[in-house]
Amino acid sequence: MVKATKKYILFDFDGVIADSSEVSWDLNKKICATITRERWLEVFEGNVHDWDKNTAHWHSPDCKHEIFDWFAEYAPLMQQRVVIFPTVSGVVKQLAEKYILIIISSSPTYLIEEFMQKNAIREYFADLLGNDVHTSKVEKIRMVFEKYKILPEQCVFVTDTVGDMREAREMNVDSIGASWGYHEHERLSKAKPFRVVHRPDALIPAISDYFKERNQQGE
């Protein structure tokens, strides 16, 4: 096997870079007042764009999701309330010196672009693929493979949700869990990622270890 030279880090956006979980939770309570936080978190164990199809709770009389433009409501809240996680900027800058960074997100690309420009980290990312590109992260990972002519073993996905891990696995991409976002350590661990880390700076050694192990497996 020929060893790949370039390595790619696929980053989720919400819950990994942007501290958006509380804003998202507040907005979803507005849509459906009776939903519990646990039931809301379970939505992120699959593709979040499928929640109205797969979750009977959203079809109860008190839920307004069918007449609710979620991202129209979310956009101004994000601009006003969502901040970057502490130390993420420095971690991203350091990782970009060695790896190619790409965003794979369920948020609209324009919101991601605005946030990254505002927080001075846009220059470190080669690509931003939001939900306007495709709602499936499986398909967006496939697009990355095709555009950059790369293989699954050249990538790792940094994410805070089980659903993302499952979608990445469909493309044979392993994940590193970020426990400071939507899903906690125990839930992330059950999805069997390469590792779960608890601080952004722990991503640096975790990613290094991941690619070292992949290289050893390819020898």
Spell out the key features of this protein:
single chain, 219 residues, alpha/beta, Rossmann fold, 2 domains, two-stranded antiparallel ribbon, 10 helices, 14% strand, globular
Describe the model.
This protein has 2 domains: 8-19 and 83-218, Rossmann fold (3-Layer(aba) Sandwich); 21-80. It is built from 10 helices and 8 strands. With 219 residues, it is α/β, with parallel strands linked by helices. It starts with 7 loop residues before the first strand and ends with a helix. 44% of the residues lie in helices and 14% in strands. It has helices at 21-31, 37-43, 51-54, 70-81, 88-96, 109-118, 137-148, 162-170, 185-190, 203-218, and strands spanning 8-11, 18-19, 83-84, 100-104, 125-129, 155-159, 175-178, 195-197. The chain has a 6-stranded parallel β-sheet, with helices on both faces.
